[in-house]
Amino acid sequence: MIDPDVLSRATEKVRAASGDDVIAEMFRRSMADNLPAVSERLPDGTTFVLTGDIPAMWLRDSAAQLRPYLLLCQDDPGLQEVLIGVLHRQLEYVVLDPYANAFNQEANGAGHTSDETEMSPWVWERKYEIDSLCFPLDLAYKLWKATGRAEVIDARFRPAAEAIIDLWTVEQDHEARSPYRFQRHDDRPSDSLVRDGLGRLTQPTGMSWSAFRPSDDATDLGFNVPGNMFAAVVLGYLQEIAVEVLGDESLAARAKELKSSIEDGIAQHGTVDHPVHGRVFAYEVDGMGEALLMDDANMPSLLSAPLSGFVAPDDPTYLATRKLLLSPENPYYYSGTAASGIGSPHTPPRYIWHIALAVQGISSTSAEERQQLLELLRDTTGGTGLMHEGFDVDDPSQFTREWFSWANAMFCELALVHAGIK
Question: Can you tell which superkingdom this protein's organism belongs to (predicted)?
Answer without folding.
Answer: Bacteria
